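Researcher: Quick one. two chains, 488 residues in total.
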Amino acid sequence: MSYESEHHNTHISQSFNEELEQIRTELLTMGGVVERQLSDAVNALVGGDTDQAEQALKIDSVINDMELMIDEQCTLIIARRQPAAADLRLIISVSKATNDLERIGDETSRICRYAMELASEGKNMQGYQEVRHIGNLVRDMLKDGLTAFARSDAELAYKVAKQDKEVDSEYRTAMRSLMTYMMEDPRHISSVMNVIWVLRSLERIGDHARNLAEHLIYLVSGTDVRHSSLKEIKKTVKRVEERQ
Amino acid sequence: MSYESEHHNTHISQSFNEELEQIRTELLTMGGVVERQLSDAVNALVGGDTDQAEQALKIDSVINDMELMIDEQCTLIIARRQPAAADLRLIISVSKATNDLERIGDETSRICRYAMELASEGKNMQGYQEVRHIGNLVRDMLKDGLTAFARSDAELAYKVAKQDKEVDSEYRTAMRSLMTYMMEDPRHISSVMNVIWVLRSLERIGDHARNLAEHLIYLVSGTDVRHSSLKEIKKTVKRVEERQ
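Model:
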């Protein structure tokens, strides 16, 4: 039985169905806000736009509130509806995904603060190209992770997990080149360090986007693939497809 | 009604009680493993002991397995027992705390890797005193956070949350002094960067220990204090005490 049919057959209560769909929709709404914040933060940094960084930073408290609100709804549904099987997995994975989105928001807020410092420090733009590039990679991972949730698409979630390897590799390359630059020109250590922190935050955002994808795979497969290798994840995703 | 009496009156099933106590015990066992790994990692780094760092690094997979195991038990209890009120809060807070412990294990594993690199790089020990000091602070926070869970002690949990401010402040001071050192002596940039990453990991461990404390406060008070100020947390803890 596929996840979708299992999911819609386990209960006939219309309002229960609606509650479940609502938390999924709210997760996606929250994801859209986080995605926009991330995109604005990277643009603000690369463009030296302090106002845009400040605006994006303000979104942090909105994201925090959304996390608390969705999590509370998840707890209420568990207490009232006593869900099992796929319904329970939906609630658990939405709750965990919400937590990862909030952490992406945290890292993005850090990027906003560094963007403001970098803008005030002036013209050294070493590493900005890498920020733009890795920023685009992790934004796409986040977008795909959310789309995977919207469509219960395990194959797309696997793609996100795989993409994280590329981000890690690009991150290491960028880090090596910034270290070399610092050694050659120590006058810029302070501003280059800010760029290094930004890259670190982007790398972490990639990790959280991968977590998001793993929660979706748990939702559709019932297998908890956290701490699994890509190979194991691929097997799990393949089993899901064969069932459909 | 106090948390403890509420907790023991909501159901009479002996085996349900045992299941709930078991996940709490397993959380504390996992916490003990993480605490030991952290202590070993910091000692390995400061003492330049590659073997100890390697041994501590191996614990990472044990910690990951414990996370999956405890989380699976939490899901099973929800599905089978249909818990509400304080029982549901216990399960949710144990599941979330487990996740924070796993992340502390992740950061500690990073520290092990940097310890190995630093040991192979030789004699520059700039920042080691700060690593020792902040390492002790966050280890105590973790220990107290776990004790708070063992005793349902909201007051102690509040102390942990408060302690995080001190860690953040010590971290910023250490970071400033390492930046100055790098600028004055760029030959050591590479090894000092490794110490900087270690300090960052320790600062994050402090954040996760604070999260642990917040989950305990949610458990005993029913109020989700994530993203709350220390002042708000104090109020919540005070309400708990007045009820007892």
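Chain A has one domain: 3-243.
Researcher: Thanks, that's what I needed.
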